[in-house]
């Protein structure tokens, strides 16, 4: 029996947006680093790894929980490792690029430092993004602004480099959460080896993408419209109660 974590259609629901985003973002990343090997921690069904393969990177590894159905993978099953990411993950090798996108918010806050340590152990360059407060999503236990993650990476002497967001910020083909959150973390030991990333150091700002603001504004306006009329309030909460009751009986 699969654990009650993600619904069966969770990864399929997000796959198209994820693949479209990867097709736009990876060419930008390749302007900064040309990895021969990539590991994707929290890879899901492997949408990003499938696009890395399209760019000729065949030395790949995917890591995620046992809720991922192997038959849904978009890359070879023997390159997938099941792991409880809350408990960290280790391998006997390092990779040129560690890919970890919109995953860390799913890690409980008490395990966040151990998770970051795992990423640092896997390679000297990490392409990272994580949900900010209010972003919302399935099992988002630990939404944080970038400084939270910056402080954790700093414990392992990794520095953030915010050189990707500005190049994809207005690209409508990229899901807004990647545009809002993605950046590099590079080990201070190899700064000189990756000057294309590290040559320009700028302050990492806690940015909120207009798409998120629009989403929140639409929801707020909807609630305001509901609350203006007692009848609509009753109808709204009755509908929500009935929907939840239906879901309970479906389970």
Question: Would you write up a description of this structure?
Answer:
The structure is a single chain. The protein has nine helices and seven strands. The radius of gyration is 20 Å and the shape is globular. The chain has 251 residues and is of the alpha/beta class. Mean pLDDT is 89; it is low at 1-11. Helix 1 runs parallel beside helix 2. It has a seven-stranded mixed beta sheet with strand order 3-2-1-4-5-7-6, sandwiched between helices.
Topology:
Layout: H1 10-30, E1 37-41, H2 47-54, E2 59-64, E3 80-82, E4 97-101, H3 112-122, E5 125-129, H4 146-154, E6 158-161, H5 165-168, H6 176-181, E7 183-187, H7 195-198, H8 210-227, H9 230-250
Parallel strand pairs: 1-2, 1-4, 2-3, 4-5
Antiparallel strand pairs: 5-7, 6-7
Helix pairs in contact: 1-2
